[in-house]
Amino acid sequence: MISDFRFEEAPQLLPRLRPVVRRIAELKSKARTRGVPAIYVNDNFGRWQSDFAGLVRYCTAADQPGANLVRQLAPEKDDYFILKPRHSGFYASALETLLQNMGASRLILTGISSHQCVLFTANDAYVREYALKIPRDCIAAPSAPQTRLALQYFETVLGADIRPAARFGQWPARRAKRSKRRRGRD
């Protein structure tokens, strides 16, 4: 959720983010104590010659609308990062390779915007058969109806666990049901 907040819906989104940012920071801290790595997957905002540290500096500059929020979620030295060109964290990025190398089978997704970037990343994770936890209080969209719609989709279509972040560590015992079709067969 490292952003310059210079997009059309940012003025509607920014006022809703303070509690979301606090809960994401708390969840990240709890995850860290359990050895769960943090992977930042961020837009590059068209800054194709930037690296992640440069992107964080850009987004925390005093003239950026959400600089204070970004500072609260600033990555630590052992966090991972992926810059993405579009909505999904998987599209044209190294995320899938990183997750495979980590041996990941479950993902916790947080951030903005729940009805766009989080949604597209969740869809791509689902088709790759990752179990998903998308804490309802760690995502946001410019409007509450957009977030509710995304949450309904996460739960009913993707089988995601959407319980609040305070329930971290209480992962469901079984994975969401998957189609039994085999790869390469329709």
Describe the structure.
This protein has 186 residues and is of the alpha/beta class. The chain has one domain (10-167): 3-Layer(aba) Sandwich (Rossmann fold), CATH 3.40.50.850. The protein contains six helices and six strands; from the N terminus they run αβααβαββαββα. The chain has helices spanning 10-33, 52-59, 67-72, 95-102, 117-127, 144-156; strands spanning 39-43, 80-84, 106-108, 111-112, 131-133, 139-140. It has a two-stranded parallel ribbon. A two-stranded parallel sheet has the order 3-5. The termini are far apart.
Assess the beta-strand content as a share of residues.
Answer: 5-15%
Distance between the ends? 36 Å
Helix fraction, binned, reads 25-40%
> What is the mean predicted local confidence, pLDDT?
89
Number of strands: 6
Structural class: alpha/beta
| Major sheet size, sense and barrel closure | 2 strands, parallel
Please count the helical segments.
6
Task: Classify the fold: give the CATH topology.
Answer: Rossmann fold
Order of helices and strands: HEHHEHEEHEEH
CATH class: Alpha Beta
How many structural domains in the coordinates?
A: 1
The largest sheet has its strands arranged as 1-2
How much is the radius of gyration in Å? 16 Å
CATH homologous superfamily designation: Isochorismatase-like
Secondary-structure topology with pairs:
Layout lengths: L9 H24 L5 E5 L8 H8 L7 H6 L7 E5 L10 H8 L3 E3 L2 E2 L4 H11 L3 E3 L5 E2 L3 H13 L30
